[in-house]
Design brief:
Strand content: 15-25%
Keywords: Cytoplasm, Methyltransferase, rRNA processing, Transferase
CATH architecture of the largest domain: 3-Layer(aba) Sandwich
Largest sheet: 7 strands, mixed
Enzyme class: transferase
Number of strands: 19
InterPro entries: DNA_methylase_N6_adenine_CS (IPR002052), RlmG_N (IPR058679), RsmC/RlmG (IPR046977), SAM-dependent_MTases_sf (IPR029063), Small_mtfrase_dom (IPR007848)
Number of helices: 11
CATH class of the largest domain: Alpha Beta
CATH topology of the largest domain: Rossmann fold
EC number: 2.1.1.172
Organism: Nesterenkonia lacusekhoensis
CATH superfamily of the largest domain: Vaccinia Virus protein VP39
Order of helices and strands: HEHEHHEHEHEEEEHEEEHEHEEEEHEHEE
Length: 407
């Protein structure tokens, strides 16, 4: 680390050229909409903090931007230090935002990599918007500490309302020097230096969960996979309901008459792989395609499938919804959609997943969905997919079965 910045201190942070180097007003979230800005006060504070370290003499080489939500950080640092930036995001949607914003601004962006040892090897600075999940922060902090350069500076920033002291504690487990910066515009940056190497890897984690089968399912999870090794309450209810349906997983032909068994089920938003593995274990005639926009979810599902002996029948796909699948190509989709974006309740993601499910289902194909009852998805399911019946409801969740209309 620069000798003139002693432990427990950080450079003074002021507004810098890094926050003027691209037109941030043109950065958008994905899907790209005029009313969806792709930059916030935490991003700008992260860039000004990085600039302060550069001004203090820290290297401008081997920069890593991790889990950049919209590409603003990657594009600004790439314009400042061409050829020196590596980037990777857990979500494919963040990659699409980066690509679209780079094209809109005419800025060259590095190709996204994977979140692994090679991403961080020799990194001198890592810039990270703090993830919502502290498990993700733990997983990534360990990798950074283990593989980055000895003088690495980790800048982890977020909005005050989304931060907690426990985030400091996570970083302190992996770095000897963690300093909270001064707040600005209701945002703050945590600076971590002096990595602690040789600690046991905190992930993947494993847990055995009862799911109504002859034996418990062993769930395996990386830090950023939604739900970790828990059996999500909505997923548990969905599986209980499906187990009681005498005709599951049968689907109808396009006229709604003859029923047949599909050869494959799609688990959309697979998370830790619970639904995929349960389906493969309970219905050995089925293969399962597990899809998620999260790289950690995809790997977690692969590990869970392997741990339960069904890896030969569970394949995975990292995708924005089901965008890489052709129209009218699938018979059966199982869906437990997210109901939040960050810390806010947001139905738009679920609406996109339902709409893409409708596109991918064959006429007569079936979408089985579990959802938080207060969000009232049934009219959207009826409009986008087709006839929808309620299979079950408890105080929190509703399970429905929607049949794709013929036209």
């Amino acid at each position: 680390m620069p000798s003139h910045i002693p432990p427990g201190r950080t450079p003074d942070v002021t507004h810098s050229d890094l926050t003027e180097i691209i037109d941030f007003s043109q950065v958008r979230a994905w899907p790209r909409r005029r009313e969806a800005p792709g930059c916030d006060a935490a991003d700008l504070l992260l860039l000004d903090t990085a600039a302060a370290w550069f001004a203090a003499g820290h290297s401008t080489e081997d920069l890593v931007v991790l889990d950049d939500r919209w590409g603003a950080l990657t594009l600004a640092l790439s314009a400042f230090a061409p050829g020196q930036v590596r980037t990777a995001s857990d979500g494919v949607i963040a990659e699409k935002a980066l690509e679209a914003n780079a094209r809109a601004l005419g800025v060259a962006a590095p190709a996204p990599g994977q979140i692994d040892a090679e991403l961080f090897r020799g990194a001198r600075m890592v810039v990270l918007p703090l993830p919502r999940s502290q498990d993700a922060l733990e997983d990534w902090a360990w990798m950074i500490a283990e593989y980055a350069a000895a003088d690495v500076v980790l800048l982890a920033g977020g909005r005050d309302k989304h931060m907690s002291r426990s985030m400091n504690a996570v970083l302190q487990r992996h770095f000897d020097d963690v300093v909270p910066g001064r707040g600005r515009s209701k945002a703050r940056v945590l600076t971590a230096r002096s990595p602690r190497r040789g600690l046991p890897a905190p992930f993947p984690r494993r847990a055995r969960r009862e799911a109504g089968l002859e034996a418990p399912i062993e769930l395996v999870s990386l830090g950023a996979a939604y739900g970790g090794t828990k059996l999500d309450h909505g997923t548990r209810f969905l599986l209980e309901v499906l187990a009681q349906q005498p005709d599951f997983p049968a689907v109808s032909d396009q006229h709604g008459s003859d029923q047949r068994l599909p050869q494959r089920a799609v688990d959309l938003g697979c998370g830790n792989g619970t639904i995929s593995v349960w389906t493969a274990l309970r219905h050995p005639q089925l293969s399962v395609l597990a899809a998620d926009q999260s790289a950690s979810a995809v790997v977690s599902t692969e590990l869970t499938a392997r741990a339960n002996g069904v890896a030969d029948r569970v394949s995975t796909l990292r995708d924005d919804a089901l965008s890489s699948l052709p129209d009218a190509s699938e018979d059966l989709i199982l869906l437990n959609p997210p109901f939040h974006q960050g810390n806010a309740v947001d139905t738009s993601v679920a609406h996109r997943l339902i709409s893409d499910s409708a596109r991918v289902l064959r006429p007569g194909g079936v979408l089985c969905t579990v959802w938080n009852s207060h969000l009232k998805y049934r009219p959207w399911l009826e409009r986008r997919v087709g006839a929808t019946e309620q299979l079950a409801k408890n105080p929190t969740f509703t399970v429905t079965r929607s049949v794709r209309r013929s036209s």
